[in-house]
Amino acid sequence: MEEVIEEMKELRGETLAEFLSSIGLDDSQLLAEFEQSLELFKRSSGRRRFDMARILVSPGQPKSTIVNLDAARKRSVFADIQTRVTQTGEMTIAARNRKIETDEDLDSFLDACVHLGIIDEDGKLKE
């Protein structure tokens, strides 16, 4: 196996594609699987960051001032975050399956987003 890996390191472009084909591998399938692995890693990394932010905002920790905004403004901020997620894919809202069922859920989610640096204390999206 080491010999195969060493040989692959030396090859580029069409020569690499031919070598992979000669050992029964499809270069386009390998690339697709690699891209899927990268996407999974990005999602799991984002989830870990979100979980850490939730720990930071757990009971006993001071809440950010975003929880003091009126309910309509909080829902608007949540909608802005969902729009950004849809457009950029840079964060998933898997923690709640994109559902906010109570005002406390919304407060917790927005507070975590402040700690993650996604929004500021006023609910404005950060770049």
Explained architecture:
The chain is an all-alpha fold and 127 residues long. The protein is 64% helix and 0% strand. The chain contains 5 helices and no strands. It has helices spanning 2-10, 13-22, 27-56, 71-88, 103-116. Helix 3 (27-56) packs across helix 5 and helix 4 (71-88) packs across helix 5 (103-116). The longest helix is centred in the first third of the chain and has 30 residues, at 27-56. The protein is elongated. The protein starts with a helix and ends in an 11-residue tail after the last helix. The mean pLDDT is 79.
- Uncertain segments are none
Strand content: under 5%
Count every helix, treating DSSP H or I runs of 4 or more residues as helices: 5
Percent helix, as a range, is 55-70%
Properties at a glance:
single chain; 127 residues; mainly alpha; elongated
Quick synopsis:
With 127 residues, this protein is mainly alpha-helical. The chain has 5 helices and no strands. Helix 3 crosses helix 5 and helix 4 packs across helix 5.
Explain the layout of strands and helices:
Layout: H1 2-10, H2 13-22, H3 27-56, H4 71-88, H5 103-116
